[in-house]
């Protein structure tokens, strides 16, 4: 029975997709909690940011305020009911938990960074009144709604629609919007600023990389089972989708960066977004679109930095984490 066949298979033995189960087990080994992240150390840095830097940080945390909630909603509304393998649903259940941890982290972040209640409320309502964030949210909602009331994937058209939704959330939202946000965090860290935010982001980054790779492994499985779905039309649709995501994220970059900051401007961010978009297309087995190099050396070093942070944390924090293999080979 193909992975996207309608129904609700409950049989874990014999297991049809053991790779999905191993991804679930790996995610369990990488458990972390918000309480382990020390954001208090960032307060002194916030007090000495320039107005332009503070604007960037405020816009960034406003995006964080609802970003993971949108991903969680799509997981519940569209992904869980259509991926018909219990071992895959185990992973999606774990992903939903991780999205909840991310939501808690960003709630704590906003409570720490924005002590003024009115300012905090505006950040949580950013998708309503900040155009660059609203445009990204509308992009997400359009793809959440793209499956409409589709309860079963009966036809090839149904399955294509599902694939486009899955690819959008993996490649464009978790794999591009979030990676753009991570780049601002690590740019700040490269300047010795907001190390508490960067510490928590390390773990969000790790989770999101695993979410994205799980989704791509679902795409791989469907491609092996139903190769006829992967035609020139789907390639064109995915490429256009990523182009639209790059433009939406670039508008956000212009809002954050204004006339540019030392080592961070809209031009550099465009190059980075194009580079990341090509990475997503290549992972999907599709032709790259831009051919742009990564302009951010601090992102190329992120895997090394995270590995160092992993072993610097207190031993008690790793009774779960250290049992798993530590591999940081995600392409930036």
Automatic annotation (TrEMBL):
It catalyses: a 2'-deoxyribonucleoside 5'-diphosphate + [thioredoxin]-disulfide + H2O = a ribonucleoside 5'-diphosphate + [thioredoxin]-dithiol. Keywords: Deoxyribonucleotide synthesis, Iron, Membrane, Metal-binding, Oxidoreductase, Transmembrane, Transmembrane helix. Pfam families: Ribonuc_red_sm (PF00268). Its EC number is 1.17.4.1. It comes from the Bacteria. CDD domains: RNRR2 (cd01049). Signal peptide: none annotated. Its cofactor is Fe cation. InterPro entries: Ferritin-like_SF, RNR-like, RNR_small, RNR_small_fam. It is an enzyme of class 1 (oxidoreductase). Binds 2 iron ions per subunit. Tetramer of two alpha and two beta subunits. Belongs to the ribonucleoside diphosphate reductase small chain family. Provides the precursors necessary for DNA synthesis. Catalyzes the biosynthesis of deoxyribonucleotides from the corresponding ribonucleotides. PANTHER family: RIBONUCLEOSIDE-DIPHOSPHATE REDUCTASE SMALL CHAIN, RIBONUCLEOSIDE-DIPHOSPHATE REDUCTASE SUBUNIT M2. This is Ribonucleoside-diphosphate reductase subunit beta. It comes from Actinomadura violacea.
